[in-house]
Amino acid sequence: MKKKEKAGRVGLLNIRNKIFLCFVLPIICMVLVGFVSFRLASDGMSEKFLQSSTQTINMAMQYMDLTLKGIEQEAARYQFDANIESYILGMPGKSKVEKANFFSDQRVVFMSSQSSNSAIANIHIIPKSITNIITTVTPDKIPGIYDEYLEELMSTYGDKNSIPKWITQHSMIDDALGISKDSYFLSYQIPTGKQMSYIIVDVKADALKGILENMNFGSGSYVGLITEDGNELAMECGKEDLSDGVFSSESFYSSALSSEALSGNSSVKYKNLDYLFLYQKSEINGAMICALIPAEIVTKQAEGIKTITLIMVIIAAVFSFAVGMIITGGIQRNMKRISGKLDEVAKGNLSVSVVAKGSDEFQSLARSASNMVTNNKNLVVKLSGTAAELQDSARNVNDASEDIRNSSEEITQAISEISRGVEKQSEHALECVGITNTLSEKIRNILDDVNSIHDRIVEAEEMIVKGTGIVDDLAGSARVTSEKTEDVGKNISMLSDEANSINEFVHRIAEIAHKTNMLSLNASIEAARAGEAGKGFAVVAEQIRDLADNSAAASNEISNKIDIINERTRESVDAANNASAMVGSQQQLVDDVINVFDSIKEKMQELVEALGKISDSASEADMQRKETVDAVDNISSIIEETAASSSLVMDMTENLKSSVDRLGQTADSLDENMNGLKKEIAAFTVE
Questions:
Q1: So what's the pLDDT on residue 21?
Q2: DSSP 8-state class, residue 225
Q3: Beta partners for 146?
């Protein structure tokens, strides 16, 4: 019952909510379209408004710059005027009447310019004290204050070159002429050509105020003109009174003033409200025209689109809600009728008829439900007839499965006995294989040892061959040594003969020395006889005697050395003869060693042949061992295949037994299900 109650509760995702969702989605899309349209319209209008406002400020600045250029041109007219320069210098050579007339005439000229240019408030010429100030303010003759005024300017700006042309006040001149500061907003001042006076043209504050009044950006907007030194002329649009301190004290104005751009705009906060801030700088004196426009003025027209969109969304929502209620009411009523009949069918009543009102798809649903109930009723009737037959078949299947189970148990016992015999055969075959492998391993070891001995013998034979070669080389060297020894003996004998011949030359030298000595003795005697005349000859004779003595001594020394050489030569001859005899005996020993090596080589060859025969026998034994192992392996494989087949048959038998058990269980379950099916069928009402 709890499951049925849970299934009956649809929840939030019922048909009514889904239909309402289908209506809500287009409304949401309308809201999005309206919002996007509002944003696009707002951005477009804001851009157009910004362009228009920027153009207005630019035009106002252009007009003001044009006005200021007119002021500059007016002052330039008088800067290099010769008559004015002469007046400043006191008009030397002129009478008082001529000076007075020039004063009056020049004032008339200034007033004429003042009348023709509505932006000019006053025109002044400030000379030195030797002449009077010419001004449109008063016809009175007031002494010039150029020096005092220049001193005030230099104390303010530092030096003469730093004095600006455009200023916002000249308090000393105002005091001297009785001018009100409110009568002008800007002043343009330039020195005359000789730097002895100033020409000053004041700009009317009302003229600049008129420029600001022409810029009407809507109620709540502010416009203003601010000079570089912070003098501000500001007013609220639509009002004639000036406003105090609108721009100059604000941070957004300071940012614009420090910017290098001549114009710009930004969104700012002023008195906790959103404003659009616009500015334009003058290229003439750096003054700035500024405007503050409330943000609501910029998007005022776009707000109308927002309101219309909101109204249309509300109307669409109300209309959708009403239509949705009507549609969902009809759907819910038909759903209740159909679900009520289907609940009776679920309880087992198959005699009901499903109907629905209207001409929509619920009619098809009701017909389909009625056909389903009719088909289920026919199915229940058929099932009630076949349930008994199925129960009898289940009993027969249970009996057959019992017989198959008994047979499979007998087969299993027989296969188990076969499997045990096969396992024993497999164990014996494995033992035989192990023994054969052991024998095979020993044969392989013997064969490896024989091969190793053969390799060692081959190496020994190679060493014998090398030794034989070395002994042969030694024999050759002994023969060469013997020959060299004989040559040495011959050379020593020849050396002894040469030494004897040298001895003969030594005897001759000794004889010559003896004769020379005798000759020197005779010469000495003859020199003594000659007296003083023979002294030189006596000296020569003395030298000859010394030479003879030295020659005799040298010949004796050479004779001694030759005797020693002869003695050494005889010893060398004896040593050479002994060496030759020893070399002969070594040659005999070398020949004996060569014979021994030849004998060893023959024995090694015989041993190699014997080992070759042993190796061949071992190889044949190894081949027979391999054939035996292969045969045993085949037998073992056959036994293993037999065991595997037995295991497979055993497994198949076990599977058959399990299948028979499952078949019996299935038959029992089928019998139980048939009983349950009968009970379930009995619960249906078909009439």
A1: 72
A2: E
A3: none
Class in CATH terms, 44-302 = alpha beta
Phi, psi of 222 (to 5 degrees): -125, 140
| CATH 3.30.450.20 domain locations along the chain | 44-302
Confidence of residue 49 (pLDDT cuts 50, 70, 90): confident
One-letter amino acid for residue 248 of the chain: S
The CA distance from 313 to 390, in Å, is 68
Beta bridge partners of 190: 199
Q: In the beta sheet, which residues pair with residue 274? A: 269
> Sign of the C-alpha dihedral, residues 640, 645, 648, 654?
negative
In the block, tokens 């502010």 appear at: 222
Tokens of residue 339, six digits:
């679900």
Span 83-89, average pLDDT: 91
- DSSP states of 494-505: HHHHHHHHHHHH
Is 163:153 a contact under the CB 8 Å cutoff? Answer: yes
The pair of three-digit structure tokens given for residue 439, joined into one six-digit string: 């024998």
CA 603 to CA 528: how far, in whole Å? 101
630 class by beta-carbon count within 10 Å (0-12 exposed, 13-18 middle, 19+ buried): exposed
**CA 109 to chain CA mean position, Å:** 80
**Structural tokens at position 262:** 């001549």
Angle at 513 between CA 509 and CA 517, to 5 degrees: 170
Burial of 102 (0-12, 13-18, 19+ CB in 10 A): middle
Least-confidence region, from 422-431, 466-475, 482-491, 597-606? 422-431
Q: What are phi and psi of 202, to 5 degrees?
A: -90, 140
pLDDT of 472 strictly over 80: no
Q: Which of 437, 440, 433 is nearest to 635 (CA)?
A: 433
Q: What angle do CA 261, 263, 264 make, to 5 degrees?
A: 95
Distance CA 371, CA 369 (A): 5
Average pLDDT rounded to a whole number, residues 282-309: 80
180-233 pLDDT per residue, tens: 888 899 999 999 988 889 999 999 998 999 999 888 888 889 999 999 888 899
Residues 6+ apart with CB under 8 A from 242: 209, 233, 234, 235
pLDDT digits (tens, 9 = 90+) for 485-511: 677 667 777 766 776 777 776 677 777
- 176: which 2 tokens? 């001297």
Q: Is the distance from CB of 350 to CB of 684 less than 8 angstroms? A: yes
User: 607: burial class by Cβ within 10 Å (0-12, 13-18, 19+)?
Assistant: middle
Nearest to 26 by CA among 331, 325, 306, 312: 312
Neighbours of 277 (CB within 10 A): 22
Q: Considering Cα of 25, then 30, then 34, then 39, what sign does the dihedral take? A: positive
Q: What's the CATH architecture for 375-682?
A: Orthogonal Bundle (1.10)
Q: Highest-confidence range of 20-29, 618-627, 675-684, by mean pLDDT?
A: 20-29
| Greatest Cα-to-Cα distance within the chain, rounded to the nearest angstrom | 204
**CB-side exposure of 677: number of CA atoms within 13 Å?**
19
Which part of the chain has CATH 1.10.287.950? 375-682
